[in-house]
Amino acid sequence: MSKQSLITIESLMEQAQVYASAWSLVGGMFDQGNQLQAAEEEKVRLEAMLEDFQEQTDANAAPGNLQEIAEGLVAWHQGRMKNISSVLGAPADTEVHLGETVLTGEKLQGFRIGLIIAQEWFEKFPLSITPNTPDSEEE
Fold first, then answer.
1. How confident is the model at residue 102, as a pLDDT?
2. Three-state SS across 93-128?
């Protein structure tokens, strides 16, 4: 990847516009005989920018970054499931305060039933993390 500044979607779109404008002039009344060559040069610039952008995107999606994201998601899920367990582990008549609303009686019972259902539905997180083990060839 070239050592130029970070390529953004905006800069790609600007170059695409330059490329399209250059092609729109080919063979037209403003073509001084070199417009096809100019359009092809703009195409080469756009392709180079797209290649650099792809490399930047691949670098930002490196396995280490994905590992951090996955670990964060797993930790978030575990924390939420722990919160549900804590509420369900409290005595059944414990008042629950949700902002200014206090749940008691039937409302509290319905809330606890909802938590039991949520716990059952979301207990297993659909993402797991396994440590990387080196391939036998790399050892």
1. 93
2. CCCEEECCEEECHHHHHHHHHHHHHHHHHHCCCCCC
> Which residue in the block uniquely carries the two structure tokens 């404008």?
21
Strand, coil or helix: 62:
coil
Instruction: Answer whether residue 38 shows pLDDT above 80.
Output: yes
**Do the Cβ atoms of 25 and 31 come closer than 8 Å?**
yes
Give mean pLDDT, residues 94-98. 90
Q: Where are the domains of the chain?
A: 9-60, 63-122
Query: What average pLDDT does the segment 92-117 reach?
Result: 92
DSSP bridge pairs for 13: none
DSSP state at residue 6: P
The two tokens of residue 20 are: 């399209």
pTM of the model: 0.50
Query: Are the CB atoms for 119 and 81 separated by under 8 Å?
Result: yes
Region for residue 46 given its phi and psi (left: phi exceeds 0; alpha: psi -120 to 50; beta: otherwise): alpha
DSSP strands (E only) in the chain: 96-98, 101-103
Tokens for 113, please give them: 């039933």
pLDDT at 139: 45
